[in-house]
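Hi all, long-time lurker, first post. I run a small reading group and we've been trying to get comfortable going from sequence to structure in the token notation. Rather than ask abstract questions, I figured I'd post a concrete chain and ask someone more experienced to write out its structure so we can walk through it together at our next meeting. Sequence below, copied exactly:
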Amino acid sequence: MNPHTDPWADLQRTALLGTDRLPHPGPAEPDPATALLERAALATVRRRAGLLPLPAPEPAPGPAADPDPRPPLPPAAAGRLNLLLAGPVGGPASPAELLPQWLTEARQRGYRPPAALVPALLAAGRARTELRGDVAALAGPLGHWLAERNPDWRYLLRTAGADRPAGAEDPWQHGLFAERVTHLTRLRRRDPAAALALLESTWAGERAEDRLLFLDALQERLGPADEAFLEAALDDRSRGVRATAAELLSGLPGSALGARMAGRALTAVRLAPGRDRLLVSPPPAVTADLRRDGVAPNSPTGRGERAWRLGEVVAATPLASWTDGFGLTPAQLLALPVVGPGEGGEPWREELHEAWARAAVRQRDAGWARVLLGPAPHGGSRPLPRAGAPARLLAVLPAAERARWTAAFLRGHGLGDAFQLLGACAVPWTPPLSTAVVAALERAAASGSYPWSHSGVLGLTERSLAPATAPALAALAADAAPDSAWAETFDRLARTLRFRAEMLAELAG
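-- Answer (accepted) --
Happy to help. Here is the structure in token form:
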């Protein structure tokens, strides 16, 4: 080999042309290709061993981070954060499940994280957008200082909302779409008028699909001040925007759209002269005015056209129109037979009750939701109510009532029927609801089913069960067949609950 040639370049040429066309000089080998790879490995080690360190970078420009006056995390809580940020290491629960709870609790308590953990905290927020609000608040001035110097963390400068420092990027003008939605939602919770003004300032230039999702943010603290904007949105060129604006207006007490719909509904549904039944006459067609108020000209659901029109009008009608107009309570109205054109009463009764359920959810009317749900079915006495999505009706009730209703339901039904109901309950679950869930898990294990058949509910239990149920789960693990799937599942849940209890105790200081 010419001593002035580059050995690495020779290896590259041989690799490109092939050892059969350009044999590499050196000792004969049975397999020239293997010999080439071995020489390349040796050359790589020589090249890396000979590298000299780069000169130290200049000090970071600009002033240091602002001081952070918040109290530091208790040492045990800081160690727990380090464990959660490090990822799965054989612990009892997935950090993906428990990190959000830890961040929310630490943020509410106003702690300052250790400086050494802030980079890992920012990296977690970059990977998971749902963490960014808590990460931005918890990272504090040091997090913003780092984000200004690392492009990977610049999302923080668009996420902090009202807490962002002077000179930080405006998330509404410069953020990604998800960041803009988050910013608008957070502002809406804090200052509804400011959020509406912000949305109005750029509304005309937004894409239709973006306008649709921005409108969803107005569900937070919806009020009379929003009506003019939403009425104008009824004339939007996007059908989805028009429909969403109509749905929001139908949930706004005293809106003009609600009054228009009430006039149509009380024509379509009348109380019989004997006050013993309801008579249904669906709107004969979708007029231009009805279409503007959010009713599509054709049913997109596969239901009959008359039933579709009736349901859309009733669902958008203020529920007080029925009790005031007919002088009957919700329970009395729901008990009446319903008679419609050309059909027996039962199909029209189902359509009317379904529409009332949708109205109760839109208007957040707990009285109607309570009657539509009825007492919690137990002992297999009756199935879930068919009118409306029961979990959505349940979400309208106060948190304590939701937990009681779901616990009663669980005492007579399987876990598969309760997944959505449990998802509607406030976290952490109350001790009675947690006890009912543990009892349902015990019945599921005794029935011979497999844990993975209830993976959805098990995922909820890791985040939501009251830690006080850990001893009951540990006892179930001890009683289960050794090395069985249920023994492992109960043991994991018990360890997760203990982990959560320790986590919260550490944050309490």
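A couple of things your group might point at:
Residues 68 and 443 are 52 Å apart (CA to CA).
The beta strands are 269-271, 278-280, 338-339.
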